[in-house]
């Protein structure tokens, strides 16, 4: 540390929330840099469950700066609900600041997201329908409305009218929807603005000051590498860049302000929504993993698709993120499955072998994993707290991943609880800045 990015190395839901919460203990600032409330980050602490969609997973520590960066798209209604929910549970949210430059999800973005999916029919992306894509589209089209616009009624009304104008055609089916009335929308958003005003800030200087003072800053990613709009399985992706490089743009720092990049990956793979998935399981083993891993979306409740660990994709994710460490989660879920197939190459539609992630959409859609079988383990590992506590075959499984991908393992997670974590020597080196052990407390 001081600047460490925590990113998803698969298709999202890898356990970034848990890892960020764990690391936040050693950080002064936690900042979300992209995505919106399509994200769902779950933290389990002392038996209590916390779910965050927009608020950074550092908020449970008093006295930290928890920032929503300019790169995030913010649904103010959802954010206010999340703030209120935390206050009700006694959490101090004074450290929460939202970039004045972050873009707002508007009621028409939600309707356009739904309409877009309906129009695609059986080719739909399976979005979370939270308006993420249409909001980023407006940002790029320079028709976006930002947090700062909430503080000026005249500007807000003008901007909403200008943003709605080119959408008249596509919004026609919703013409009678009261949510689209210009007056009501302006009033609603002004009131959100009033309530959010104490949290609206110029966020980059908060990050710079922490970095300049040699404090630790966590850049918390949402989604995952394979959902990246540039590097993922386009068009079955989200509309932002979850990769670590985007933390610079979305937080307002330079590449030299990111010193470590930790990729979070499950010991298997899941995906929610449509799109290619070369190691997908359609049998009872896939079902078993879904049940054992509680693989149902935090945001939409949809069952997640499950599959074997895909090292072709993970090596690709390591490269595009510049990973310096791997945090492997949900190892406990694989207990009792023996052997454990792991994909190390793909076979394409014409029988061609791929040892790299294919860029061609038609190839990727039909690619299937080729597997090597790794020995499994049968002993319960949920209580493991040190590397040595893991059965030899589990250690070998992790070492195989690390060798193949070429990135050291920093953390291993064996259950949802905060204490169900193994910090490796490499992890300790980074967390402790090279100076001894940093205990991860329960
Ligand atoms: P995120 O979006 O990357 O933060 O991940 P999610 O929170 O959407 O999904 C991960 C889920 O797995 C959450 O319900 C976590 O509580 C849970 N979880 C995290 N790590 C582990 C683990 O090592 N084992 C098990 N069994 N569950 C875990
Ligand atoms: P976290 O941060 C898993 C998926 C959706 C869909 C695609 C596009 O919890 O890991 P969108 O609403 O973003 O336009 O949907 O992306 N998706 C996620 N999948 N975890 C997420 O976030 C996701 N956010 C979006 O299911 O396939
Ligand atoms: Mg999630």
Topology:
Layout: E1 3-8, H1 16-24, E2 29-32, E3 41-45, E4 48-52, E5 65-68, E6 73-74, H2 76-88, E7 96-99, E8 103-104, H3 107-120, H4 132-140, H5 153-164, H6 168-171, H7 182-196, E9 200-201, H8 204-212, E10 217-220, H9 246-251, E11 260-266, E12 269-271, H10 284-292, E13 305-307, E14 309-310, H11 311-321, E15 325-329, E16 340-347, E17 353-354, H12 361-366, E18 368-374, H13 392-405, E19 409-413, E20 421-423, H14 425-431
Parallel strand pairs: 1-10, 1-11, 2-5, 2-10, 5-7, 6-8, 7-9, 11-15, 14-16, 15-19
Antiparallel strand pairs: 3-4, 12-13, 16-17, 16-18, 19-20
This protein binds guanosine-5'-diphosphate, 6-O-phosphoryl inosine monophosphate and magnesium ion.
- Through-space gap between termini: 22 Å
Overall average pLDDT:
95
Widest sheet, order of strands: 9-7-5-2-10-1-11-15-19-20
Number of domains: 2
- Low-confidence parts, pLDDT < 50 over ≥5 residues? 434-442
Could you say what the CATH architecture of the largest domain is? Alpha-Beta Complex
Q: Please give the number of β-strands.
A: 20
Which CATH C-level class of the largest domain is it? Alpha Beta
Q: List the ligand species.
A: guanosine-5'-diphosphate, 6-O-phosphoryl inosine monophosphate, magnesium ion
Give the CA-based shape: globular
Rg calc: 22 Å
**SS strand fraction:** 15-25%
| Structural class estimated from helices and strands | alpha/beta
> What is the third-level CATH name, the topology of the largest domain?
Adenylosuccinate Synthetase, Chain A, domain 3
CATH homology group of the largest domain: Adenylosuccinate Synthetase, subunit A, domain 3
Number of helices: 14
Q: Tell me about the largest β-sheet.
A: 10 strands, mixed
Bin the helical content: 25-40%
